Amino acid sequence: MYGETEIAIVGAGPVGLALALALSRSGIAVRVLEKRPGLSAASRASTFHPPTLDALHGLGVLAPLLPGGVRVDRILWRQVEDGASASLDLGILAGETGFPFRWHREQQDLTPALLAALPEGCVRFAAGVIALAQDAEGVTLRAADGSTLRARYAVGCDGASGALRGLAGIGVETSDYAHRVLRLLTPLDLRTVVPGLDGLGYLADAEGTCSLLRMPAVWRLIFRIPPAMSDEAAMAEDHARARIARFLPEARDLEIAGRDVYGVQRAMATACRAGRVLLAGDAAHLTNTRGGMNMNAGIHDAMTLAATLERVLDGGEDRLLDHWAEARLRVVREALLPRTDSRVAAAPGAEVARMAGLSPAQALDWAREASMLDIATAGTPA
Ligand SMILES: Cc1cc2nc3c(=O)[nH]c(=O)nc-3n(C[C@H](O)[C@H](O)[C@H](O)COP(=O)(O)OP(=O)(O)OC[C@H]3O[C@@H](n4cnc5c(N)ncnc54)[C@H](O)[C@@H]3O)c2cc1C
């Protein structure tokens, strides 16, 4: 028996833990049930956008984390053949956010900080949820060991598996968009090789692109791989070296400290609410890693949902939750999925010219959208 609480959260990833902390800071009783025996240590998200930094600052977990991350003030686009380049200074966002920059740090460094800030015993590990019952007063969750947890609302933050989504009978729309990405890690400081590079660069030649992301200990090099190529062939030394030589000829012999291939999908839940069950994070939306937005969007789901639940538990109308669910789904459909869709990116070779040609007002709009400042608070009750 796990007992009773006001809000039950399924999944202790960044979204579930951020939601738990936001609710707990508002004095709302919350419990998290997590399937794994501990936090995931997988290397996934790297990028934290300004509104996410604002949110983490508000939760009181950012200050100790900031010194261990990489602050990125400028984004670079560079055409390999002729060296033509364009750059955008994120400082133009000063006045719209307390953090007018991107910040690069591993996702698995955030989750322990969130967990440590939660009250003792708030998260129950090795407690995968396998059953759900709803009635007029609340929900009852049952975990694999037979224990139950009763709550007024349950929030599925259980990632792409969408266990609670399925139990609540919410559908998911997927597309055949899936593709794969080769990720190489190098300790070489690529700022010594690429003129004008700060912490994020998009290199292009006539046939494709290579993204460069500076992380605290290494740089990530990201390449899209052709559908017919196997993971093994993509990671093979000769293929990896050929890719590096194409985009970074001066650094063709750089040390490769790690390599992997990951798949990219595109999916969204058909609703973010069914009765007393709500969805946030990957359980509600999956996107390409282009632009580094999906975890950020999940944390924005969490912040806006916490504000809405606080109002509802305080006597506000239940339909505030419908408004929240509709607003967040609209964000996914109209902003998150289109912005992360590499099929709508400018053709290789055109990106530098496009970015170099932006007027100051267009550059500001671009920076707002790329930083998610225009969508982060959608769904917050008025
Ligand atoms: C290589 C890579 C790079 C990425 N880069 C970025 C980036 O730069 N920026 C960005 O914003 N996003 C990025 N993403 C996406 C980001 O990693 C995800 O959006 C993020 O992890 C979503 O968090 P979440 O808490 O919703 O889900 P998850 O992190 O998947 O957490 C879900 C949790 O639920 C648990 N769970 C599952 N089923 C159950 C159950 N039945 N009962 C209880 N618990 C359950 C799981 O064990 C897990 O701990 C990247 C992803 C990948 C793969």
TrEMBL record:
Pfam families: FAD_binding_3. The lineage of its organism: Bacteria, Pseudomonadati, Pseudomonadota, Alphaproteobacteria, Acetobacterales. The keyword Oxidoreductase applies. Coiled coil: none annotated. Keywords: Oxidoreductase. Residues 4-335 form the FAD-binding domain. This is NAD(P)-binding protein.
